[in-house]
Amino acid sequence: MYLGIDIGGTNLKAGLVDESGTLLRTRKEPLGRVSDPEELAARLAGMARAAAAEDLAQVQSVGMGVPGAVEGGTIVYTCNIPMKNIPMERMFRSHLDLPVHLGNDADCAALGEYHCGAGKGCRSLVAITLGTGIGGGMVFDGKIYEGLGMAGEVGHMVVEPGGVPCPCGRRGCWEQYASASGLRRMTWEAMEAHPESLLWTITGGKWERLNGGTAFKAARRGDEAARAVCGTYIRYLAQGITNLVNLLHPEVLAIGGGISNEREESLLRPVREIVDRECYASHGGRKTRVVKALLGNDAGVIGAAFLGRSR
Amino acid sequence: MYLGIDIGGTNLKAGLVDESGTLLRTRKEPLGRVSDPEELAARLAGMARAAAAEDLAQVQSVGMGVPGAVEGGTIVYTCNIPMKNIPMERMFRSHLDLPVHLGNDADCAALGEYHCGAGKGCRSLVAITLGTGIGGGMVFDGKIYEGLGMAGEVGHMVVEPGGVPCPCGRRGCWEQYASASGLRRMTWEAMEAHPESLLWTITGGKWERLNGGTAFKAARRGDEAARAVCGTYIRYLAQGITNLVNLLHPEVLAIGGGISNEREESLLRPVREIVDRECYASHGGRKTRVVKALLGNDAGVIGAAFLGRSR
């Protein structure tokens, strides 16, 4: 058995996972304010111990998914939590002495989908998560591919030169157009341009009530402005996915994140149509399966648990 | 020792390569018209035998780089030569009975650079070749990564949505802007817009005398129109390379093809400046080395020879 820990931007989660990837027991708590890494390590060890409970003796290793960069047993940095060069493995083991494996959270999610989700049985998988940004993870022949450590920054491929500025420093990054936040921004712009749109009724004109599903909802009710937004969003999403398919030609490309729960006919089907038509393999050769990620919010913790198995 | 064969669009080349990747002996002839695959197999076997000469008994395997897609011992199709589903391994072995490994030519070039060129000693390499199109090959931990078989179509990532139509079916593909042909087209367009440009003098106004080096040459002599073309070219080249670095974060990204022979300060240095500034790893983490490919036209035959070693 393996323990998986998912350090999210909002929640901490620990889970006990068996050989088949089944999540047997979980512990979850809000991240809250993290000022002291030693304290975080102690909390994580406590949660892991609680998730393992009476099975602790059977646990072979602990995997930890971190929203940032890791190297060996060290968290190099994280995006949301102020941590830089934290020797997390050592800190954690002072509380719970088991082999510890650190990984990037998007990589862990991809590993989870590879072993027991949308990629089960495949040899190469690319998993993308449409959220605030676009996370990406790649698993080839059972191993996370990370290059020099930061591979998979799929959200930061430019799809619109000179386009919307991105905090990363470039302009026109994919995640400015095809993430949930990108869709939200485009929906808001459509509202500003179309005072007659149903989007106003649905949101009450409030930015806080606008989310990744709003445009799809209004489009289903026939709103023209919303339809146009969805069309634009799908084009951008498909443009980036086709790029990934042409570069990596994986057996499976899994799409996760809240937006991936949109109805098949509204999102996945039109995206697939564009990718199938535009990808290089359309000229012959096997086609990448573009599918919905299956593990939802559990992908991270399951994948983290599998870190020990794949290294 | 290993035999490598490079089936190019213009020439056929066979070479004998030792364990260290040194090319000991080569045979080269023009491709000519290929109507019969059996005849091509016989020619290739003859060239291989000639390259091996008295060392034939020491040859462990034959690798073959093909401009197209392969699967096992079969050439699925090639772009320039009319071949579809050709059982090349069987055909070749009926003339020279050695283990045969087929690979894509861009993959072979990457493998050559990985083992004994720009990537010597590294763990992950992406090699791109700026020619008629942009070829791409990836080698991770000594193995060619090919996904479902057609990975590495880096030239067909869209960098300019709605841009120049590409024969692949998409619009705005990277190779329409950053290949040698793309540069040639942009140079010609600059000539049409600038009758006063030095480009007219250098080329005598003839399309045939225009090549990937023309704009760089005129720019060095101070021609404004040519400078603008070079600037645009470098921006597009760097945009795609930064995308690749963000996605794959390889230890080495090697640039090959005729254009890569431009002076360091005209091409590689400005490209590197943009990539270093724009890549995600600029925020921390190790940086990809963006370098010139070192093996030139030999990369394909050396890499093909190494196919047997890496499988």
What's the quick description here?
Chains A, B: Belongs to the ROK (NagC/XylR) family. 2 copies of one chain form a homodimer. Chain A has helices at 37-52, 88-93, 105-116, 175-178, 180-193, 198-203, 214-220, 224-248, 268-278, 299-310, and strands at residues 2-7, 11-17, 23-30, 61-66, 68-71, 74-78, 84-86, 100-104, 124-130, 134-140, 143-144, 252-256, 289-292.
Detailed description of the structure:
The structure is a homodimer. By secondary structure, chain A is α/β, with parallel strands linked by helices. Chain A has two domains: about 1-110 and about 300-310, ATPase, nucleotide binding domain (Nucleotidyltransferase, domain 5), CATH 3.30.420; about 120-295, Nucleotidyltransferase, domain 5. Chain A is about 35% helix and about 20% strand. Chain A has helices at about 35-50, 90-95, 105-115, 175-180, 180-195, 200-205, 215-220, 225-250, 270-280, 300-310, and strands at about 1-5, 10-15, 25-30, 60-65, 70, 75-80, 85, 100-105, 125-130, 135-140, 145, 250-255, 290. Chain A has a five-stranded mixed beta sheet. In chain A, strands 11-10-9-12-13 form a five-stranded mixed beta sheet, sandwiched between helices. The first copy, chain A, has a three-stranded antiparallel beta sheet with strand order 5-6-7, with no helix packed on it. In chain A, strand 12, helix 9 and strand 13 form a beta-alpha-beta unit. The longest helix of chain A is centred in the C-terminal third of the chain and has 25 residues, at about 225-250. Chain A is globular, with a radius of gyration of 20 Å. Chains A and B meet through helix 8 of A and helix 8 of B. Chains A, B: Belongs to the ROK (NagC/XylR) family. Chains A, B: It holds the Pfam family ROK. Chains A, B: This is ROK family protein. Chains A, B: InterPro entries: ATPase_NBD, ROK, ROK_cs.
